[in-house]
Amino acid sequence: MRPFLLLNMTLLIALAAPLCEARETAKPAHAHKAVASLSRSTHAKAINRNVVRQHQPAARPLQSGVHDSRRGTNSRVVARARQLVGIPYRRGGTSVAGGFDCSGLLVYLFRTEADLKVPRTTGEMIQSGGLRIDREELRPGDAVFFNHNGRGRTSHVGLYIGNDQFIHAPSSGERVRLDSLANSYWERSFTTARRFRG
Question: According to the model, what pLDDT value does residue 124 have?
């Protein structure tokens, strides 16, 4: 009787072992499917997020870029004007080697730093169609115009560089220099300003 019981127990253990193994191996397969399904779902969401990002409007950055480009050009014109302080005045002059008169200085600056052709004389600059600017609206790179001590026709021009200051070639025997619009003479003599655009 006892050997029979031992045989039955051995058979039961032998039959039960493969069933347990089959159950254990089946579980990871289901878990793998669940993980795969979850990863596909997550991947699909990531793709959807990427698609939404690609269709965002780009109008604002482009406008900003145009504005920055203009600002960069004005900065170059102003920086170059600062480098020319001390160059001798010369009537009719438009070059570093030959010196500058007032309008010749601006012709040189806009040509070399902004690739912009402005008229040769002060009167032509005023009439050229540049944007008219009030004194309160001045920005670095604007052309500022003056008459003589608040009287007569406009006959002088300089380059506004910010903080109420401008650079100009004043007159015979002098040199390119920086002056302030707050100075009583220049305040009296200021007549108008223009903004040239390329």
Answer: 96
